[in-house]
Write a structure and sequence with these properties.
The complex is a heterodimer. Chain A is mostly helical. Chain A is 63% helix and 2% strand. Chain A is built from 18 helices and six strands. In chain A, the strands form three sheets. Chain A has a two-stranded antiparallel sheet. Chain A has a two-stranded antiparallel ribbon with strand order 3-4. Chain A has a two-stranded antiparallel ribbon with strand order 5-6. Chain B is mostly helical. The chains are: A mainly alpha, B mainly alpha. At the A-B interface, helix 7, helix 8 and helix 9 of A face helix 1 and helix 5 of B. The structure holds protoporphyrin IX containing FE and copper (II) ion.
Chain lengths: 574, 198
Amino acid sequence: MNHASHAHPLPFWRKYIFSMDHKVIGVQYAVTSLLFLFFGFGLISLLRWQLAFPSQPVPFIGQFFNDTQMVGGIMLPEFYNQLGAMHGTIMVFLGVVPLAVGGFGNYLVPLQVGAPDMAFPKLNMMSYWVYFIGGIVMLCSFFVPAGAAQSGWTSYPPLSDVAPLGQTVWLIGMVFLITSSLLGSVNFIVTIVQLRAQGLTFFKMPFFVWAQFVTSFLLLLAFPPLEAASVMQLMDRLAGTSFFLPSGLVVGGQPLAHTGGGNPLLWQHLFWFLAHPEVYVLILPALGIVAEIIANNTRKPIYGYKVMVFATIFLGFMSFVVWAHHMFLTNMGTSMSSFFQITTMIISIPSVVILTALILSLWGGSIRFNTPMLFAVAFLPMFGIGGLTGLPLGLTASDIHLHDTYYVIGHFHYVVAPGTIFALFAGIYFWFPKVTGRKLSEFLGKLHFWPSFIFINGIFMPMFILGLAGVSRRLYSPEYAHAQAVQPLNVFISYCAWGLGLAQIPFILNFVISLFAGKKVDSNPWESTTLEWQTTSPPPHENFEHEPVVLHGPYEYSVPGQKKDFLPQNMREN
Amino acid sequence: MSALIKYIDKPHPVTGVTNSKLGIWCFIASEIMLFGGLFSAYVLLRSGSTTWPHAATVLNVPLATLNTLILITSSVTMVMAWASSALRDYNKFRMYLGLTVLLALAFLVIKGIEYGHKFEHHHFPKESIFFAIYFTMTGLHGLHVLGGIVVNSYFLLFGKRMWDEHPEQFTGRIEAAGLYWHFVDLVWIFLFPLLYLV
Ligand code: HEM
Ligand SMILES: [Cu+2]
C-alpha cells in the first residue's frame, strides 16, 4: 500500500473538502443534509403558526420578514405557499435522500462489501458538489423577486408555468439534484456489482446493501423522466412553449399569450413516474438500517432474509407501474384506474412481507434496548400506520373523499417522518462510533427519543381526523366553516410541532459534545458481524488493512457451538 | 485515487466487464429513460392535438438526411478509433478520433444552419406544440452531441499520458466513450423519422 497519498499526506482541502474518500464524502453528505432537514423543519414550524392562529401576527420572529412575506407580522398567502412548497422539496430532495443514500450509503456500502472505496471516487466527489450547488440554488430562490417556488413540491402546471421567477430557480435546482443522484446511483451499482470482497456472494450481503442496490436502480431509472419534464417546464417558462398549457387558458382575467395545445396531465404523469418510486427511495434505505440494527440488538439472524431480499426487488419493479394512483381524480377512465388500483394493492404486499419479517425477527430475541434499537423498534409501528393508511388512498372510492386533504399529509408523513427519519436517527446513533470512534450518550439519546416519539404522533395522528373532516392540504386559511370544528386539533398539532423542535436539542447537544468528549469505544462496540465493524474506527484510508475474505452470511448471531454469540463475516469458526 | 480499486483495467471474472463499462451502461440506461420521457411526451401531445404539420413542408429533410449520414459515419470512425487503440497504433487512433470529433462538429454546424433557417422564417419554439417539441428534442440531442465532442476532444488532447501509462484503462475509456457516442447516434436515428418523416 505505498502510493502517493501515503507518502505525502494530502493537503487539508484535498482531504476534507474536495475529498475523494467515500467516508469523507459520506460525512459531508450527512452533515449537509442534516442541516437541510433542520432548515426544512424550521420552514414548516413557521407555517404551522398560520394554521394554528390564522391571520394573527407571528410574535417576535414576524418583524424580521419583508412585506412580500409578512405584513405587520401576518403571513401572506404567497409566503405561506413558499414555505409549504420548499418544505416538501427540501425534506425530500435535500434532506432525506441525501442523508439516506448519500450519507449512509456512501459511508457504509463500500465498507459492508469490503471494498477500498467506491468504484469511481472522482465521480463520487462530483456528485456531492453537484448536490451542494443544487442545494444552494434552492436556498437562493428565497431571495429572488417574489420569492421561492409556490406551486408545491409537485409543481403542477398550469400554475407552475405561470408562477413567478422562483419556480425557474426551483427547476434549475432540480436539474442539479437529479444529475447528482444519477452520478451517485451509477457509482453504487458498479461498486456493489464489481467490488464485493472475495466470498461475498449476493446472498451474503447485508440487507442494507441490498436496499441501497435496489434504491440505486430506482434513482437511476425514475429520475430522468422528471429531468425531461423539468426541461419542458423550463422551455414553457423561458421560451414561451406550451407543453403543459392547454389552449384558451385565462389567468387573472387575461387570456394567456401562449399558443396552447399542451397537456397539464403530461407533467403529472412524468412527475409521478419519478415520485412514486421516490417514496421507496425514501424508505428502502431506512428499512435497511432498521434490519441491521434489529439483527444486532436481538442477537439473532433476520427472520426470512432471502424473502426480504426478493420482496425488495419485487417492490423495486412494481414501483414503476403504480404512479397513476396519484391521479385517480384526473378522469383517467375506469379500466385505467382499475389497473392502477390493482397494482397498488399488489405493491403493498412486499412492504407487508418486509415489515412482518422484521417484527418476527424480534420474536424470542434477547433484546438490548439501547437508543438505536429504540428508534428502530419505534419505526415498525409508525411505518405500519403509514402503510395501512395508504390503502384507502389506493382505492378510488375512498380516494375521492381523501384526495388532497390532510389525511394524505398524515399518511405519507407517517411513512417518512416517524418512519424514515426515525430509522435515520437510529442509524446515526448506531454508526456514530464507527465514524468517530466515540459513542453518543445513551442518556441524551433517550431524552431525544421519548419526547420525539410522543410529539411526532401528536403531530401526525390528528391530521387523519383533519383530513376526514375535509380540510384541504396547502390550505392557507383554516377559517372555513367545515374546518372550524377541528381547528383545536390544528392548534394542538402546532404545539406538538414546536415541541418536536425542542426535542431535537438533546440530539444536537449530544452530537456536538460526543464528537469531542464522547466515551471512546473499541472498533466493534455493538459486537456486530458485518464487515464495517471488522476494521478500526474510523477506518483507515483504504478501509481495511488486508482485503477481507468473507466466509459467512451477514447475521451469524448466537451460532450454536461458538464461544461468543456472534461470528463476524470474515472470521473462522472455532 | 485509490490504487486498490479492482477491475479498472481488467474485466471482472464473473461479470466479464470493467467498472467503467458497467458504469457507462448504467448511464445509458438512465439516458434512455430521459429520452423515453420526451418520446412519450411526443406521443401523448401528438395524439392529443387536432393539427400536426406535415413535417416535410416545414423542416428540411435533405439536410437532416445528410446529418444522419454524417452521424452514422462518425459512429464508424469511433469504432475504428477504439480498434486502433486496442491495437496500440497511436497515429491511427488519433486520426480516427479526430475524424469523429470533426464529423460531430459538422453535424452541429448543419443543425445550426437548420435552426438559423427556422428563425429566419420566424419559426420559434413557442409557435406551436410541433415546434416546441422539435426544438426541445433536437436541442437536447445537440447538447449530447456537444458532450461527446468535449469528451472525445479531451482524450484527443490530453490522453497521451494515460495512453503511455495505463494503456488498457485508456482503451476501456475509449470504449465507454464510444458506447455513449453510439447511443447519441441511436437517439438521432429515432428522432429523424419521428420529427422529419412521419
Ligand atoms: C417531522 C416534522 C415534519 C412536520 C411537522 C411536517 C409538516 C408538514 C405539513 C403541516 C405539511 C403541509 C403543508 C401545507 O399544507 O402546505 C407538510 C407537507 C409536506 N411535507 Fe412535511 N413535515 C415534517 C417532515 C417531513 C419529512 C421528513 C418529509 C419528507 C421526507 C416531508 C415532506 C413533505 C412533503 C413532500 C409535503 C407536501 C408539500 C406540498 O404540499 O407541496 N415532511 N409537512
Ligand atoms: Cu405513489
